[in-house]
């Protein structure tokens, strides 16, 4: 029962983030500028991020982040409605696979909460080192071809957002239990850096073109990075036997493939719509 509320908050966050993202994308594609519809989409997505923060405060990253991947699935009917079309057979196939993989992962892995809290110096040092690596990846991407530049920015953006999820959980825990010390902890300031870096890298990825390359990288890296950091720094664990571990790995592989395929379809449609508008 204690996992039900964060699960519901995570699903609600995924739905709102999907709706807000689709609304902003459509407003930008039609008008080419920030409009009241764009701001409405931003407000809806921001509400979703608020629910995500609440879910992370109450539940584990290993529970919340896989459920947030459902935003890709929720965007499927919303995009179809906005485009006045029906989802294709391929979209439904990958969408059903995605939903099944998320459910199977949570049932099989049974992620459990933990009271372990990392040393603030260790957390800050680890996150700072990762950020330095990301900056280096961005520098390399600037000297690469358009394809690899879009890919590197997509990877960097997703990684920054994955880091942000971990830091949100840490900050929310402190706000709930030790509100007076939050301004003295490095997590709140690292979160600002990571969130800003994620947004900037995302915009650079979009401007680099090849959305079908950068978008899937963003979608896949965020939950992957946040889950790995949750296990490494927060001590989160899954309770599995050896054969269940094999099943979990297989499930995650299919889940990632489903996310990539759905993200590719969405990105390709976005490129086509942009081409039609230009034409």
Structure report:
There is one protein chain. This protein has 279 residues and is mainly alpha-helical. It has a domain of 122 residues. Helices cover 82% and strands 1% of the residues. The protein has ten helices and two strands; from the N terminus they run H-H-H-H-H-E-H-H-H-H-E-H. Strands 1-2 form a two-stranded antiparallel ribbon. Helix 1 runs antiparallel to helix 2. The longest helix is centred in the last third of the chain and has 37 residues. The protein is globular, with a radius of gyration of 19 Å. It starts with a helix and ends with a helix.
Structural features:
two-stranded antiparallel sheet, 279 residues, mainly alpha, single chain, 82% helix
Main beta sheet: strand number and arrangement? 2 strands, antiparallel
Distance between the termini: 54 Å
- Give the number of helices: 10
Strand content: under 5%
Layout of helices and strands, plus pairs?
Elements: H1 4-31, H2 36-58, H3 61-68, H4 70-82, H5 89-109, E1 111-112, H6 120-142, H7 146-177, H8 186-207, H9 211-233, E2 237-238, H10 242-278
Antiparallel strand pairs: 1-2
Helix pairs in contact: 1-2, 1-3, 1-4, 2-7, 3-9, 4-5, 4-10, 5-10, 6-7, 6-8, 7-8, 7-9, 9-10
